[in-house]
Write a structure and sequence with these properties.
The protein has about 550 residues and is of the alpha/beta class. The chain has five domains: about 50 residues; about 35 residues; about 140 residues, Glutaredoxin (3-Layer(aba) Sandwich); about 250 residues, Rossmann fold, CATH 3.40.50.880; about 30 residues. It contains 15 helices and 21 strands. The strands form six sheets. The chain has a seven-stranded mixed sheet with strand order 8-7-9-10-20-19-16, sandwiched between helices. Helix 11 links the parallel strand 9 and strand 10. Helix 5 packs across helix 6. The longest helix is centred in the first third of the chain and has 33 residues. The relative contact order is 0.09.
Length: about 550
């Protein structure tokens, strides 16, 4: 190749490079003019040229600052926001706790058992007080609330009384700092954290162990624990006692039961909480006091003697003046008791020879348990003041109460229309679904009217209706029902005040066996089916996008 040819080749290469640079310059100018200039594009184009040259090396990538990245900024903002939310929740919680301590009416009960709230009956009674009442807690408030969680709950409940009525006040008194205080109550054994409810010269002492709480013993450890709180019922009853002029007297008839109180102790405690004066006599040797309004014969395991039966008859007739009441609850086992049967027959009543078996799942509190029953009660004069109509009235192993004289007696509670009667001599393979007879009476009242008043004999077929767990249950109405019934039978004027205990151990889920079937089908079949269908719809839509 001669010099002339080399010069022509050099000119051609130079022209190509100039044309390429001109092209790059034109692209950069256009990008700048459009506002879309990107150094990276230029670098890539330049790199293409540099790659064609063996004499230039590739540039090293520029290191980026990790703290200036968008990812870091977003993450940091999220962390700061989370911290602010946590601090805000803590501050709000502190403020709410302080306000609740200063203003009790701001507190909200989330326990499901109303452990921190007064019942409607307590509120109604508190509002009706027109005298100055003082609730004295025997201890400093700080020491009281910090001693035990149950005391903390009780204190929160106590502070609701002054909210309802400013005539009710609370004071805290330390016995150690005031040793002479015990001299004001020489007949009481005052103990720390107990209460004294007083109005003028009248007072009622509420012991922390026997009145305010029901204690239980752990079978494994032997330790004592609080089984239920009676603070509201005890305090409300005490307020009623110190502001009321008289009490209704009830007499438990002993001498014929395995235990004169037995499973009735929970009910007698409930009566006392509702300002009944409850005492007990031995009917074998003692007459029923004439100032008693109601006599209770509970679960006798033997027949009455002739003399004991006469004492009951004389009590009811009251020398022709009447105005007395007998409440009889039989045992669920077979008992030959001609003297008791004779009294019932005189009042147009008798007992069926067996126990009721329920077959309607809507009336069975436990699935497959035929002998546990839910009862219907009508809106008659004995039950029309029941407030908790959404709760159930329950019994078990019920003796049917037969009304022989409809002119005297009235049913107050009944089973479903699909109940059967298992006789005492039924075979072991007896099936209630094959012996459905209809509805049975769980309870009935017979009335006899004299010149001045009326006497009543009430027969209730289920002794288990009076067990403490049912009386204090948040699911069942038993406690309110029977106190209201006694109020009506004894002509109490304050029939609206029914105070029940509070079970602190566990909330009860009040669902029946038929509701269990519905809810079971809902959670086992319907909800899973809905979830599967929704999943398929979402999957198909995403696949066809």
């Amino acid at each position: 190749m001669n010099y002339k040819d080399e010069k022509e080749n050099l000119n051609e290469n130079t022209s190509a490079v100039e044309n390429e640079e001109s092209k790059i310059s034109e692209e950069a100018a256009s990008a700048l003019e459009a506002g879309t200039f990107d150094e990276k594009v230029i670098e890539e184009n330049t790199d293409d040229n540099e790659a064609s040259s063996d004499t230039k090396k590739p540039k090293k990538p520029k290191k980026k600052n990790p703290f200036s990245s968008r990812k870091f900024k977003k993450g940091g903002f999220a962390i700061i926001l989370t911290c602010l939310v946590i601090v805000g929740v803590i501050v709000i919680n502190i403020i709410v706790n302080v306000l609740q301590a200063k203003v009790p009416m701001m507190s909200i009960d989330m326990s499901g058992q109303n452990l921190y709230e007064l019942s409607d009956s307590s509120k109604e009674l508190a509002r009706s007080v027109d005298k100055d009442v003082t609730i004295t807690v025997l201890g400093k408030e700080d020491a009281y609330t910090q001693a035990d969680e149950n005391f903390l709950k009780a204190n929160a409940l106590l502070k609701k009384y002054p909210v309802e009525n400013d005539k009710i006040s609370i004071e805290y008194l330390d016995l150690q700092s005031n040793p002479t205080f015990v001299n004001k109550y020489p007949n009481e054994h005052l103990s720390s954290f107990s209460y004294i409810v007083s109005c003028g010269d009248r007072y009622k002492y509420l012991d922390v162990a026997s009145d305010l709480f029901t204690l239980g013993t752990d079978a494994t450890t032997g330790s004592t624990y609080v089984q239920s709180s009676n603070v509201e019922s005890a305090v409300t009853s005490a307020i009623y006692y110190v502001t009321s002029d008289d009490q209704t007297k009830v007499t438990v008839l002993g001498g014929f039961s395995a235990s004169s109180q037995g499973n009735l102790s929970g009910f007698t405690a409930l009566l006392k909480s509702n300002n009944y004066d409850v005492s007990e006599i031995n009917l074998l040797t003692e007459d029923i006091p004439q100032d008693s309004n109601m006599a209770i014969l509970y679960q006798p395991i033997s027949d009455l003697t002739d003399e004991a039966a006469k004492r009951i008859t004389d009590f009811l007739s009251n020398d022709g003046k009447y105005g007395k009441n007998l409440f009889y609850v039989p045992t669920y086992t077979k008992l030959d008791a001609p003297n008791i049967d004779s009294i019932l027959e005189e009042w147009g009543l008798s007992l069926g020879q067996g126990v009721v078996a329920e077959t309607d799942s809507a009336y069975m509190p436990f699935r497959g348990e035929y002998y546990y029953s839910i009862f219907d009660y009508s809106g008659n004069e004995y039950t029309n003041d029941i407030k908790n109509t959404n709760k159930y009235l329950m019994g078990a192993y019920t003796r049917p109460v037969i009304i022989n004289d409809g002119a005297k007696a009235t049913a107050i509670a009944t089973t479903s229309q699909s109940a059967a009667l298992r006789s005492f001599d039924a075979a072991d393979d007896w099936d209630p679904t094959q012996h459905i007879e209809g509805s049975f009476n769980a309870g009935a009242v017979s009335v006899r009217t004299g010149d001045e008043a009326k006497s009543t004999v009430t027969v209730w077929g289920s002794e288990m209706s009076f067990y403490s767990p049912l009386l204090n249950s948040s699911t069942y109405v038993n406690g309110e029902y029977f106190v209201n019934l006694f109020n009506k039978l004894t002509n109490r004027q304050d029939t609206g005040f029914v105070i029940e205990g509070k079970n602190t151990q566990s909330a009860q889920l009040g669902i029946m066996s038929d509701q269990i079937l519905v809810l079971g089908s809902l959670f086992m079949y319907l909800i899973p089916a809905i979830v599967i269908v929704l999943g398929l719809v979402i999957w198909i839509r995403r696949r066809h996008r």
